[in-house]
Amino acid sequence: MQPIKTLQITKVRTTAVNVPMLESYSFSVGKMAGVTKVIVEVETNSGVVGVGETYPLWTRQVIDKVLSPRIIDENPFNLERIASICLPTNANPSLPYIDIYHLLGFAGIEMALWDIAGKTCDVPAAMLMGGVYRDKIPFCDYVFTARQGGEAAEQFMDRAVTSCKELVALHHSPVLEFKVGVFEPRYDIEMVRRIREAVGKDVVLRVDANCAWTESTALRTIREFERYTVDNVEEPCGTLEANARIRSSIKTPISVHSTRVMEVANHGLDIAVVNPLPIGGLQRLKQQVAIAEDRGIDVWLHSRGELGFATAAYLQFLSSTRYTLLPSQSLIRPTEDFLTKEGKPEFEKGFMSFPSKPGLGVTLDHSKLDKYNKLFEDEGEYYWLSESGFSPPFY
Predict the structure, then answer these.
(1) Which helix (H) or strand (E) holds 32?
(2) In angstroms, how far is CA 182 from the centroid of its own chain?
(3) What is the distance between the alpha carbons of residues 305 and 34, in angstroms, rounded to a whole number?
(4) Residue 207: which H helix or E strand, with range?
(5) Rounded mean pLDDT of 110-133?
(6) Are the beta carbons of 274 and 302 closer than 8 angstroms?
(7) Is the confidence at residue 59, as pLDDT, over 50?
(8) Class (C level, CATH) for 4-125
(9) pLDDT at 195 over 50
(10) What pLDDT shows up at residue 387?
(11) Burial tier of 235 (Cβ tally within 10 Å: 0-12, 13-18, 19+)
């Protein structure tokens, strides 16, 4: 085996892919019918190749034109040095002069570097992230329901209720998350009531409003939800300040997307929903989880429709991180396929096992890569915002 200290990065290759959803879903600002991702392959002089994934399509230009030339000949184990080469020393997603696409692009590269490190050492990447703390990792099931044309709310609710019942019956899913804010709040309240009645009192229900509501609408709606034991509401409003004011008047925990866990804690909110890609990679994610632990708030990982490599990276990270106790998000079931030879991981009773093979534990299937790259070339990038980009006021 080639000594680690002599390893060098020799090439970085990116490929854009489109992978459809088996069933699209609607939310307050649009509809998601599939995902466009950039697959990142990092080659080394030892012959070991690492694979990562990131989004959106624009990151491909950043990786190809800016980041890749900087890291050629670097040792893939020197993560901190490579990060300093690719990102400013004070890189911080909250600073306006830090390009988010550099963070997203670097995160795809860093994922591939973890893959290389594990493969080189012949251990799962989790062993290099702190060791394996758990081998079963909790995830929630995301319920996909799409509004078909101008259909009425009743049909939408019927499908949502049916989907929830099937997930509990077929997969014994203990935690379900679904969208609200697609229709008027009175329909959301009725949908929550019907889902609770359908799945029973023991299933955890999370709802995601995607910032659909004003403060007054959110307050009135969530108070009605509380009659049916909703365990979490994600982003009822569009600012931390508004969500904090709502939280002070309700019993239900509120989660928000953030690249800075400290801000979530400072606003008195309960859960930071984090994605390692806009944060700038798994190493930086570890820092944010440490802040969550220090401030006593919960954290779970956000899903953007992973295609195998990011899923495996999530599993490696979560298996090595003691404080991530609550189920993270997953769009595994509705995604048409993964780009790995191993396919989708087993996901039953709310748990997945971390891949135990070296690196991220999964292998690129080049035939699938070619298939979905052609689909991207034929279709162009998936777009998920509605024409207006926001939902109308309901009250």
Answers:
(1) strand 30-44
(2) 21
(3) 8
(4) strand 204-208
(5) 97
(6) yes
(7) yes
(8) alpha beta
(9) yes
(10) 39
(11) buried
Return the domain boundaries, the chain. 4-125, 128-359
Total Cβ atoms within 10 A of residue 47: 8
Residue 85 has φ and ψ, to the nearest 5°, of: -75, -40
Quote the CA–CA distance of 19 and 30 in Å, as a whole number. Answer: 18
- The Cα–Cα gap between 175 and 348 comes to 11
E-strand stretches of 47-110 = 49-54
Q: How many helices (H) and strands (E) does the chain have?
A: 13, 12
The 3-state DSSP class for residue 144 equals coil
- Which 8-state DSSP code applies to residue 67? I
Residues 136-156, mean pLDDT to the nearest whole number: 85
Strand order in the sheet with 49-54: 9-27, 30-44, 49-54
Q: Which CATH number fits domain 128-359: 3.30.70.270, 3.20.20.120, 3.90.228.20, 3.40.720.10?
A: 3.20.20.120
pLDDT band of 30, cuts 50, 70, 90: confident
Task: Please give the average per-residue pLDDT across 55-84, as a whole number.
Answer: 95
Prediction pTM value: 0.93
In total, the chain counts a number of residues equal to 395
Beta strand 204-208 pairing with 175-179: parallel
